[in-house]
Amino acid sequence: MEVRRKHADDLFKEFKEISITEFFRKNKAHLGYSGKLRSLTTIVHEITTNSLDACEEAGILPEIEIEIRRLGDEHYKFFARDNGPGIPIKHISDVFGKMLAGTKFHRNVQLRGQQGIGVAGVTLFSQITTGKPIRVRTSTGDGKVNDIKLMIDISKNKADIIEQSEYSEYWRGTELEGEIKGVKFNLSERSPFEYLRRSAIANPHAKITFIDPEGRKTIFERSSNDVPKPPKEIKPHPKGIEVDDILSMAKATKARRTNSFLVSEFSRMSNAKVKEIQEMVSFDLKKNPRRLTWAECEELVNAMNKIKFLAPPTDGLQPIDEEHIRESVLNILDPEFEVVLTRSPKVYSGGIPFQVEVAIAYGGHAGRNIGDGTRAEIMRFANRTPLLFDAGGCAITKAVNDIDWKRYGIKDFENSPITLFINLISTYVPYTSAGKQSIAHEREIVKEIKFALMDIGRKFQMFHSKKRRAIEKEARRQLLLKYSTELALGLAKLTEKDDEKILKELTALIEEKLKLAAELELLEEGEAEEEIPIEEEIEIEVK
Ligand SMILES: Nc1ncnc2c1ncn2[C@@H]1O[C@H](COP(=O)(O)OP(=O)(O)O)[C@@H](O)[C@H]1O
Ligand SMILES: [Mg+2]
Are 131 and 144 contacting, i.e. CB atoms less than 8 angstroms apart? Predict the structure, then answer.
């Protein structure tokens, strides 16, 4: 068969630019809208992270309420409310109706959101599954409430306001409601309920209320009244940087010369370091940074890679911290015992600071209940945000799987009433995709999580064996006391003496023997603790 050739002009008749919203309309899985349950959890995630971020930046103790109502088969309505700073009127339409619009770009700051596509994604999903707008009510606390219904004009990536009104009422915060179809609700490990339960654990300062489609209301009370310090921006470190990053920073800087641009936009960059760089590059660093070429930026990166810099500052990292994690673990998991650990900050990829926090809780409500028993559950977090999906490819999962739990006295990890909590914090979390549910296998990150787990493994083992011994000791005591009652009665008969007096003396004797045994054990334990293998720790030092 003859194939008719076409001219390029014919082919290019169809050539056109599409908007970012159009792209995500066709590729909504990139934003986490894949699967009926995941789509619903994604909506809850986008709304919750925004409320937590906004409260944190404004220094407010968050109160968040989320309700999901069932309207029909795979058809739901969501309501969300926060007591955050509210959104100024002039920004409302861009926040909810425009993708890639937000307050968190290029700030190198440890927040949950980054790209400004989260909540506009909620508007988009709602609109493409039901054809309906979302409704926003928000007030900055000035007595004026803005009530807006909007959709996205997909081809223009711009809000399409359907209804708008303003009325007078005194409250502060943001309320959002919308309808969605093609989603389902359940109470599984990846559900909105579990998402909020885990958010509550990682955000002890937040009060989170959830009303599920059955009308059941769960309140996760806050266990701490300390508002986390507002996140601090830190400048990028010269070692973590790539050519393209420098080029776009150079275009945005206010500095007039490359040398002052370097000093003002990078951390650990001094005049002395700039002098070193000058000796290694072929152009004059007095050059206007906006005129830098790709090749010149490449020279800068190469020079910076050869020079030694101080490690990046880590004061931009905001760990939850051990005391707060412990409070919320006790509050929500009520375990028999727990071990909590916040490690010191580390660096990956040469210059990006990160920090790992871990906790292990045993017994009580720890672990995952699955009808016939309790299984171990692994809670992954990045910047306090629960990661519920894509566990397989995640650095945290890899680190957990690499641990030989038997070494730490946990014979059957999978089937133990254990909750493992792992939070990775960083000003730049290396997610594997835009869905932000899985952390890339950066070598330093995996290694550091493993060390953290080994560390709590050892502490867990100490607790665990102490607890086991306490139980055994008590059983022995009870047994001895039981026999001594019978023995006292027998002896009383034989000797014709008072049985109660004999029992009292026997009991005293037993208690004294047990006390002696306990003291001996304590002594042995002191020696044993020193013997716990610490070769992994040594490995850190030697590297
Ligand atoms: N509940 C809220 N309260 C105050 N501001 C909000 C709220 N939700 C969203 N915003 C603002 O809208 C912006 C865009 O949100 P979003 O699309 O989720 O992107 P991101 O969170 O990545 O910045 C945020 O950067 C923030 O400034
Ligand atoms: Mg967001």
Answer: no
Specify the residue for token string 């509210």: 86
pLDDT tens-digit series, residues 113-143: 767 789 999 999 999 999 999 999 999 999 9
* Domain match, 397 and 337 both: yes
In 352-442, which residue ranges form alpha helices assigned H by DSSP? 395-401
Q: How many domains are contained in the chain?
A: 4
CA 259 to mean position of chain CA atoms: 37
Nearby residues of 125 by Cβ (< 8 Å), 6 or more positions away: 28, 31, 33, 39, 42, 43, 180
**Cβ pair 413, 376 in contact under 8 A:** yes
Burial of 370 (0-12, 13-18, 19+ CB in 10 A): exposed
E-assigned strand segments in 50-98:
63-72, 75-82
**Residue 323, token pair as written in the block:** 């005391």
pLDDT tens, position by position, 280-338: 999 999 999 999 999 999 999 999 999 999 988 888 898 999 999 999 999 999 999 89
Encoding tokens for residue 241?
Answer: 């940087």
| C-alpha of residue 200 to centroid of ligand 2, in Å | 17
Helices 258-265 & 243-252 angle (0-180, nearest 10): 100
Backbone phi, psi, residue 482, to 5°: -65, -50
What's the pLDDT at 536?
42
Number of residues in the chain: 543
pLDDT of res. 527: 56
Q: Which residues line ligand 1 (CB under 6 A)?
A: 46, 50-51, 54, 82, 84-85, 87, 95, 102-104, 113-120, 174
Domain region containing 529:
463-542
Mean pLDDT, all residues of the chain: 90
| 441 and 483 within one domain | no
Asked if residue 168 and residue 33 are part of one domain, the reply reads yes
Packing angle, helices 258-265 and 271-280, rounded to 10: 130
Q: What is the rounded distance in angstroms from the CA atom of residue 141 to the CA atom of residue 248?
A: 37
How high is the pLDDT of residue 531?
A: 45
Which residues on adjacent β-strands are paired with residue 420? 360, 378
Residue 70 lies in a domain: yes
In the listed set 408, 429, 458, which residue is the last one of a domain according to the structure?
A: 458
User: What CATH number corresponds to the domain at position 350?
Assistant: 3.30.230.10
In contact, 422 and 356? CB cutoff 8 Å: yes
Closest CA relative to residue 148, chosen from 156, 140, 139: 139
Distance, in Å, from the CA atom of 239 to the CA atom of 38, rounded to the nearest integer, reads 37
Q: How far is the CA of 136 from the centre of ligand 1 (A)?
A: 13
Q: Which of 230, 268, 236 lies closest to 253, judged by CA?
A: 236
8, containing H or E segment? helix 8-11
- This prediction has a pTM of 0.83
Ligand 2 centre and the CA of 11: distance in Å? 39
Q: Which of 94-103, 341-350, 445-454 has the lowest mean pLDDT?
A: 94-103
Closest ligand to the CA of 117 = 1
Q: What pLDDT, on a 0 to 100 scale, did the predictor assign at position 543?
A: 33
